[in-house]
Every structure is written in C-alpha cells, then in structure tokens.
Amino acid sequence: MTLVGWLQISLLFLAVLLVIKPLGLYMARVFSGERTFLSPVLGRMERDLYRVSGISPEKEQSWLGYTLAMLTFSLAGFLALYAMLRLQAYLPLNPQGFPGLPSDLAFNTAVSFVTNTNWQNYGGETTMSHFSQMAGLTVQNFLSAATGMALAVAVTRALARSKVPTLGNFWVDMTRATLYVLLPLAIVVALAFVAMGLPQTLDGSVTATTLEGANQVISLGPVASQEAIKQLGTNGGGFFNVNAAHPFENPSAWSNYLNIFAMLSISSALVYAFGQMVGNRRQGWALISAMAVLLITGVAVTYWAESQGNTILTAIGVDPALGNMEGKEARFGQAMTALYAAVTTGLSDGGVNGMHGSFTGFGGLVPMFLIQLGEVLPGGVGSGLYGMLIFAILSVFVAGLMVGRTPEFLGKKIEGREMKFAMLAVLILPLAILGFTAVSAMLPFAVASVGTAGPHGLSEILYAYTSAAGNNGSAFGGLSGNTPWYNTTLGIAMLLGRFAYVVPVMAIAGSLAAKVKSPASAGTFPTDGPLFVGLLIGIILILGGLQFLPALVLGPIVEHFAMLAGQTF
Amino acid sequence: MSKDQKASGLLDPEILFPAIRDAFVKLDPRKLLRNPVIFVTEIVAIVVTILFIRDLASNSGEAGFSGQIAAWLWFTVLFATFAEAVAEGRGRAQADSLKKTKSELIARRLGSNGKTETVPASSLKVGDIVLVAAGELIPGDGEVIEGVASVNESAITGESAPVIRESGGDRSAVTGGTQVLSDEIKIRITVQPGSSFVDRMIALIEGAQRQKTPNEIALSILLSGLTLIFLFVCVAIWGLAGYSGTVLSVTVLAALLVTLIPTTIGGLLSAIGIAGMDRLVRFNVIATSGRAVEAAGDVDTLLLDKTGTITFGNRMASDFLAAPGVTPTELAEAALIASLSDETPEGRSVVALATGEFGVPMPKAEFDAVIGFTAETRLSGVDIGQRRLRKGAVDAVLKFAGLTEQHAPTEFRRAVDQVARTGGTPLGVADGDRLLGVIHLKDVVKPGIKERFAALRAMGIRTVMVTGDNPVTAAAIASEAGVDDFLAQATPEDKLAYIRREQQGGRLIAMCGDGTNDAPALAQADVGVAMQTGTQAAREAANMVDLDSSPTKLIEIVEIGKQLLMTRGSLTTFSIANDVAKYFAIIPALFVATYPALKALNVMGLTSPQSAILSAVIFNALIIVALIPLALKGVAYRPSGAAALLRRNLLVYGLGGLVLPFAGIKVIDLAVSALHLV
C-alpha cells in the first residue's frame, strides 16, 4: 500500500461526499413532484408522455398496484429484449452481421438486464449488434435503474407518510427517474467519456495491420453512451467482454475515476434524498455512514491483500514490492483496482476493471462478501436503499426492544407483518446463492465448467450465483457460464434476487404507510446516531453475512491460508 | 396471596420438582410446535439419537461422540421446557390458593317468586339476583343493588382491612370469592361463572390461556426465519463440502444447526412472557392480557388524577400570613385555638402546623363556648372571655367581623389574593371584629413525586395531571409537581377527548380510574388501569385492575412493561451475537481434516475437532439454564432515556454476547479434553 494509493482512494470518496447533498436534494425535489431547474425543459415532455400513455399522474397506487405495475413493466421489458436478441440477425444496425442469440443465452441476458444485474454470459463485441446494444441493453440500463429508484422512492414514502393507503404512482416515479435524473446525467457523463477518448460511433470495427504484419480486428461502437448509463445506473454490463479493463471502455486513470464516481454518486445521493423526504437528514447520513464504514473497510482489505502479493510467487523470485499484479491493468495499479473491485461489488454495479478471480484469497473474498451482504453499500440505484432499509428495520427490531418499547423506525411500529415479509426477503439471498452453489457443486457437468481445481473452483461457482442473486453482474472469471445449466439457473437466481426480494419489501412498505407515524420522544430508539450506525453494521454482518461464512471458508478463505502455507491445488 | 410475597427462588423444591416433571411433559412435539426453534431442536435431537443407536449397533466407534451430542441436544430442549415450567410453576402456587376459595361457593338465589333457593355458584347466570349475608362468601362477580356491607377482599388483594360495598355510586362492585363481614346485600350477577375476575386471574397466573402477544409473535417470526436460514445453510454446507471431498456426518451438521439457530432466546421466550405477567401480579396488578403489559412499555403519555396520585388529596395548612400589627405566633395561636373544634382534615392540619412549625404550645385554657365547623357557617372557633376567635372561609370570617369585602383592610385582601393566585385556598382568622390574618391552605404534593416525573420524562413519557380544580390552582400544582401538562376542570368527556387527540397523534396513553364515568376513557386508553375498589363498569372497561387501588401504580406498570420488552430484546441480541463464536468453534473443526491450513481459524485453540463441536453444543445448552434466572427476574431497569438504555444494553448483551461464548466454549473444551469425553 502506498500513500499515493490511499490519496487516490480518499480523494474519490471525498468527491462523492461533495455531490451527495446537492444531488440528493435535487432527487428529493424530483420525486416529491416539485419544480426543478430542468422542469422548463423536460416538464412538457413529461406531461406529453403521460398523455400519450394514458396515465393520470395524480392517481396514486396502493403497494399492490405499484408492485403489479412494476412487475408488468419488467415483464414487458424482458419479452421485448428477449425477442430483440433472438431476432438480432433481422434487425438493423448489425454491421458485423451477428446471428440471433440461442434461447438460453437470450433468456439469461434479457433477465440480466431487466433485473439490473447485467451478468454477461456473452462477449459484447463478438455477439451483440449495435442495435441490440443500443435499443436493447442500453435502454434496459436506463429502465431497470429507474425501476429500482421508483421502488426505493415508494418505500421512502411509506416511512414519510402517516396513515396513507398509497405509495405513489409507479409510472410517474419511473418516468421522472429517467427524465430528470438518469438521462441528463448520462448525457453529461457520456460527453465526458468521449472527451476522455472512448469511442462513440456506429461503425462496426476497423482492421489494422500490426507491426508483425498480422491483421487485427479492432471492435468499435457506441461505447461512451453505454458506458455512462452502465455506471450511473449501477448496471455494469460493458460494451466489451473484458468490461472496464478494456482500453476503449476505460482508457485512463481519469476515465477510471469517472467510472467509480459515476457509479457511487446516484446510489449514495438517493440515501440522502431518503433522509430529506422522511424529514430527517441525519437519518440519511446515518445510513450513508454505515455503508461507508463497510465499503471503505472492503477497499482497505482488498488493497492490503493485493499489495501483500502472493507468497508462493515471492518464494520463486517475484518482487514482493509489486504486490499481486495478476489480473490487473498496469494503468490502474493496486489502489485503483482494489477501489473499483470493492465499489463495484458494494454497489450492485458489476463492471470490473480487473479480474476478481485473479486476486489473492482475501482480495477475492472481499468482492464476493460485499455482494453477499445484500448489495447495500450503497447498493444498486434504489435497490441498495430499500435493501438497507430492510436491515435498518431488522436492527431496530432486534435491538430496539432493548429500550423497552415496541420497536419503531422513523415513528412506524415494526410488528409481526413487517417481520414476516422482512424475513421472506432476507431468506432469498442465502436460498439462491447457497442453494444453487451447493447443487452445482454436486453436479459433475456443472463442475466441469469450472476453470480451476481446488477451492478456487468452488469460489468461481459461488461468485457466479452470488453475483446473479445479488443482481451485481460482475464475474470472478474462470467459470464458463455460457451453458444451458448456468444460463438458466443464473437467470433464475437473478429473478429471485430482484423480484422475490422486492415484492415482500413492497408489502412492508404498504403496511408501514398505513400506520400512524408516532412522534419521537426521549424514549424512542434513536436511529440517527453513531450507536445505531454501529448496530446496523453489526446486524448487516451477522444477519446478512454470517450465513455465507461456511461457504467462504471452503473457497477464498482456505485459498488464503493455503497460499500462506505454500499449498497449491 | 399476600402483598409482600417475595418471588419464589428457582431452587424452591415446591417449584423445582414439579417443574422438572413438567419439563418432560412439555417434550410432546405437538406442544412444542408453538415454539419453532425448540421444535426444530427436538427433531434434530431425535435424528441424532437414531444415529447414535445405529452407531452403537454397528460398533463404529463414533457412538461415544454421537451419544454425547444427542444427550446435550436433549438437554437443550429440556432446559428450554424447564424454563417455561419454572415460570409457570411460580404462578401456580398463587393460583391454587385462589382456586380453593372458588370451588365450594354456593349461592342463595332470589327466585322470581321472591323466595330464595340454594344453588351452586357455578350454575348462576348473568342477571341472577343473590342474597349474601354476614359470614357468607359472595358467589360471583356482580353489583350491589341493595344494602351496604363491609367486605373482606383479602383473598384477592391481600389487604386485610375490610372495604365498604354499597348500592349505587362508585363502590357497588363486588368480586366472587370475597367475604361479607357485616349486614346483608343483594347482588346482581354481572359476569358468567367461568369468566369471572377470579377465573381470569387464575388463567393468567397459570399461563394456561396464554396467547402470544403481538411483539412475541413478531419475535417468533424473526426466530423462525433465522432457523429456516440456518437450516438451509447447514444443508448447503453438506453439498459444498462434497465438492471439497469432505463427507460431513449428519451428527456434526446437526450440532452446527442447533448451535446456530437462536435456541437461547427461543428457549426462554415464553418464560420471559410468563414471568412478566407474574411480576405484575406480584405488584398486585392483574392484566386481562399480555398485550396490555406490552402496551404499557410503549406508553407515551400518562394521565394521572391529581388527588391521591400527585397530592395527598386533602388541603393542608402551609403558612400563616399575619395582618399588620399581629405577630405570626399570635396568629398561629389564634388559628390553633379556633381550629381545635374543627375535626375536618383541614382543621387538623392547622393544628399540626401551629404546634409543629410555629411551636405554639397546646392551650390548656377553658373555653366559654365552642363553635364547631358546619357546612352552613363554614366557621369554627371558641369564645374565651372577651376573645371571640373564629377561623373559616374568608367571606364567612369577614361577615363574622362585620366587614364587606370592599371594606376589608388592603393588607388582608392582598394576602387573600396572594394565596388564591398560587392555587391555594385562603382561610380567614378573626378575633371579634379584628382580622388577624390568613391561613394558607394548599394541596400538598407527595414527596418524591417530582423526581419520579423527572425520571419518566427521561424515559420519554409525558405526565398529564387531571383535576377538577380551576386552571389557576391546577397550574400551580402542576408546576410544583413537575408534570408536563394538566387538564383543569376536567370532565370525563374532556379526558376521553384528550386521549383521542393524543392517539390521533400516534401516542399511546395510559390512565387509571375507578368511577363508572371513567369507563369510556379507560376503554379508550391503550392501558387503562381500574382500581379494585372501583365500579364494575370501570373494571370491565380497563385492561388492568390494581388490587391495591393505588393510582401511583401506573408508573410501576409502565416500568414492568418496559422491563419485559427489554428482557426479550437483550436476550435476542445476546443469542444472535453468540453465533460468531460458535462459527469459529465449529467451522474449522468441520473442514480441518480436508484443509489443514484452516487450523489458523481455530482462534480459541480448541483441542480437537470433536471436542470443539461438543463444547459448542454444551455451551449452547448450558447458557439456557444460566439465563433462566435473568429471564424470570428481567434485566436490570433504571429509568433513563432510550439512548442511554441502548448503549448500556448493547454493551452488556451485544458485546457480552459476542465475547462470552469464546471464553465459555474454551473453558468447556478444556474440561471436555481433561475428562477425555471425546
């Protein structure tokens, strides 16, 4: 670890810290239906959209209505994308003449983008036409992110309101998230990316003759525009197969900085917007603090583990001062790769600028563990916030009794109904991750896809299902996932991680919105102080993380100790 | 049931032995279904027992290990059922004495023809009229419709002094099982036998009809959810271990499962609930449901009657304000002499103040005439020779002195005003036509009540004083007692409206009352405490009855409610925090054979994989027994703000729960290996 490395890391977090409040306040205005500085430009377009689609924006929906609208919308998005991928060969903007995708890969990819996972079992530049990338994947990058934000806003309203049967209007929230937040930011960031040298063209590829005289095909396409929303919407699905390690997707230290900054900003600011909308900004900061503590610890552990290097390689003469450079781009180095890895997994982004599978045992453990904590650090846009709120509710319930009152969060009593749905939601991750991993680990044909023997192979499978169920989308590398088994089961894991999680969350929101918001007193469990932050971290680790410990012990943890012992597999 | 009865010790043989027997009876899986965590533990214990028998039969050498694991799993279940049995047993002794009073009751029912017939009390119906004479037991709950009698209610209240029960008014309610000491009364039965007050009390004390309270249900859901997650984790580990070439035996997976699921809180949950009700009973308060006890912990606002709760109820002389030219001692002496014939509490308080604080000796003089206090004259006094000393209401004294209010000396009027402004009542003192001064009568706030209100405020509870006094008097007493708000000249409708308003704002209200006109407010309040001396209507409307009829009890009730919830929360936190150490004990033990490098995770330095697993299981079982006293007694409670409580409990039960099992498992491991158990 170096001072410069830590400075780079600190400056980035500082930059994000500065943007949290203004962006958060802006989003709070957007979702409260207030006028913003963009209203003169976009207001008319917004109203026209409602008129054309026959939506009355004032009409609010119950939790069930809201959820059904979201599910219908997601299903439609899935079907459209699936059809587009299957029929790619017959659609325009296909300069390389790529064929349609096979059904299992199309299913996996469509699910992947609709659930904001963006797991890529395909190689972007060798599989997808420009049309599929732009009209299919990039559109879903916007819409799945906007859906997440809408859901988070609905849950926020449930905590802000008192005795109200409705949570807002899904169509309105989704439209406003896209129009007022994602689109303007994406345009700005895309232009910045173009300035940094990312290609933005409809040309397919250029063929160059290398110095050795060989022909090299260099893939091109509308990279900058997709890259912008990929990060802003915590999607992570890259234009190229190697994602942000590719020099066209992430050419320089600056573009790398903008990558990380873009993925952190909306998710973090949305938590501030939550505080603003429930009328307690300290509450927003408390949640952000808990997220930051865990995320920065993750960065530190990865950075430390990677700078330590691999003792086995040191023993055969590799300079230990370099640390572990396997799987990293020289232009980013240890610090920026560690930062990217932790942030992309603490968020449910899933873009990568290095190969997590090539990290040391502990270095690879961190990204996996951060996803398993539930993608709440600060998580995907929207999904991170509502996931964190579930942990907040659990924390309040477990420890809140210790102050001698029925637990309440922001004045809402947490009772049997909330607990029932919270436990249903919390069950999903262990079920999808451990269940599919255990089954795959026992099926010979599934194990055959593994790239490495020994515990690392188990890590590959575990990481794949972790990434899918956590709607992250990053890959460990090594696992050949484009098989019917993995395409299908990973697709199911993604669906469970998104929809089976959010439906109970929305049920909680419905139940909370209908409750009276009781005023705080000296006897109320304080949820906006350092004590609660510590408690929340403890609950995330114990209830969110501990159940994965046995699986992690058999994968990355044993890998680490084996490395120290000089054991290879 | 006696009022000062101490909580029976855990080791009291009268409770211990039946509880051990009950602990086995409760092993019936159908009964355990109520408690999912312990139910799962029992199923696992059965499975491991079968494996043990198989190991025995096959002589595999594993039998020693699986046998011990099976035994400790059974102990885990038994300790949990034992905790519940002990909690129930402590209440049963009280219930038994109540049952005795109930079983032999007979009633003299008044038939429609006007004749009485003797029938068993159990055949009475609502609306029946019965006669009860001196020496007889009242056959059922009802209302006196004719007559007055003194009644011994010690069977219920533990208070041996008889109380008066009479028709009409607020003292008409009688309770079945209590004894009439004098006279004969006619009672209309108002409650079906079997659901009478005593029946409800017995059921509650025994915990037989114990319904899970809302918070208990929510907590059970959390615990069941965790159990499900860990069940799932253990099944998945089997598959993951298979990939690594480790074949895990069902015995070790069972051990892992039982140590991970929250058996500690699962095993103690119902004991905590029963003990909470029991604590209330020991405070001589009967709650109609556990729900009410929980609500008590949540209360935001207490409505307290001024009289009897905040003040002693009688106005008492607190000062003598002498007129110009009169010394205070002179005034005190005159007031003393004039009050000797006044037998009212106010009169006696004047005597007490003069002889006490003002040091006036008791006069020995003979009086020429004694004028007693009457409601018409509102004066008392004596004539001694020329002196005609009088004390009484200001206007009455002025009239006696031959003055009108306008013509009274300015100094005198100012003193009267001053007393009235501070919420007191002025009394005048005159000697013939000469005004001597003013006695300041005031409501005396109970000592220590201000501190209690301050403690309640620290807990986040607002206190509201309810009084029939005018706003000036009410404000003065309110500020002296340190309540947060007051309701002056309050009618029952005002109270009800106040409660509704507070509830609209999301606050929970507790109040106590005894009169029939309190009934609507008692029913509306989230916690309504009726006095045992109150009317039947009040007792029906309330969800708690205070057998001591002490209005300050409301404060203790709130504290008991809070303590109940705190005990649950603390043990839940403790139980969940325990898991960290158990993982570190068991996980390396499971896989160290396959991956020797994992011995680095054996941070406790446990002797062998088998002893690590066994030690974790033993710790898991013993911690339940170790915590039974805490579950029954409740965690220490001191009134303070939520932040301070949370910090303290999080430190003790959160951090303690994290650290303690590391030490505990290590110690047990040392013992296990020293004894060569595995």
TrEMBL record, chain A:
Gene that encodes the chain: kdpA
Protein localization: Cell membrane
Keyword set, alphabetical order: Cell membrane, Ion transport, Membrane, Potassium, Potassium transport, Transmembrane, Transmembrane helix, Transport
Subunit structure: The system is composed of three essential subunits: KdpA, KdpB and KdpC.
Annotated function: Part of the high-affinity ATP-driven potassium transport (or Kdp) system, which catalyzes the hydrolysis of ATP coupled with the electrogenic transport of potassium into the cytoplasm. This subunit binds the extracellular potassium ions and delivers the ions to the membrane domain of KdpB through an intramembrane tunnel.
GO annotations of cellular component type: plasma membrane
Protein name: Potassium-transporting ATPase potassium-binding subunit
Residue ranges of coiled coil: none
Pfam families: KdpA
Membrane topology qualifier: Multi-pass membrane protein
GO molecular function: P-type potassium transmembrane transporter activity; potassium ion binding
Listed InterPro entries: KdpA (IPR004623)
Keyword Membrane annotated: yes
Similarity remark: Belongs to the KdpA family.
Transmembrane region(s): 6-28, 63-85, 142-159, 179-198, 257-274, 286-305, 385-403, 424-447, 490-510, 531-554
Keyword Cell membrane annotated: yes
UniProtKB/TrEMBL annotation, chain B:
Positions bound to Mg(2+): D514, D518
Chain sites annotated for binding ATP: D342, E346, F373, T374, A375, E376, T377, R378, L379, S380, K391
Membrane topology: Multi-pass membrane protein
Keywords from the UniProt entry: ATP-binding, Cell membrane, Ion transport, Magnesium, Membrane, Metal-binding, Nucleotide-binding, Phosphoprotein, Potassium, Potassium transport, Translocase, Transmembrane, Transmembrane helix, Transport
EC number(s) from the headed UniProt entry: 7.2.2.6
Catalytic residue positions: D305
All copies of domain P-type ATPase A, residue ranges: 106-206
Reactions it catalyzes: K(+)(out) + ATP + H2O = K(+)(in) + ADP + phosphate + H(+)
Cited CDD domains: P-type_ATPase_K
One of the record's GO cellular component terms: plasma membrane
Major subcellular site: membrane
GO molecular function: ATP binding; ATP hydrolysis activity; magnesium ion binding; P-type potassium transmembrane transporter activity
Entry keyword Signal: no
Subunit-level organization: The system is composed of three essential subunits: KdpA, KdpB and KdpC.
Protein name: Potassium-transporting ATPase ATP-binding subunit
Organism in which the protein naturally occurs: Oryzicola mucosus
